[in-house]
Amino acid sequence: MAASLSPAAYDRPPVPPPQVSIVPCHSQHLHAFRRINSLLLPLRYPDKFYTEINSDPEVASVTRVAVWRDSSSSSTQVQDAKVIGGIRCRIEPEADNPARKCLYVQTLSLLSPYRHLAIASNLLHEVVETAAQQHGISSVYAHVWEQNEDALEWYVKRSFAIGQKLESYYTRLRPGGARIVTRKMSIQELLPSKSVS
To answer: pTM (2 decimals)?
Structure first.
């Protein structure tokens, strides 16, 4: 059972395939990002959820999409890039200490043919790193459907602890409970990353 899993120590994710770029979500990505979320996630998000990505600088800073460029393509044009997944988060005060900030992962989705390539891990890592550096967060959390054992295990492998269960969180799913997964920021994550040239 996933609830008994222990969080792993945090490690930076492996480098994704060279065809993948993790980029800020711009207006040309919104339609594909929205379509992927509606295909893969049990909740429907209102228009405002997507328009805020371009209108709210804080939301934009913690939203990314993964784009795939076919290696046979010689062009680097944006229109040649295919959105294959994305993450959208928001900055919130911590529940037990409102003076501290946390990152709430609202959506994280990736088309199935691209899973197990470290792409979702890199999406998460990029927004966590940005949120730590720009917003001073001290933790990250998300809601996961109680029956989604794969997602719970995925988060545990990325140093998240499985916390309390919220009954009837998802109204369209049966059972409707959600587990809260949380990760406290490590010193390693709070330090600025060094770019390799």
So the answer is: 0.86
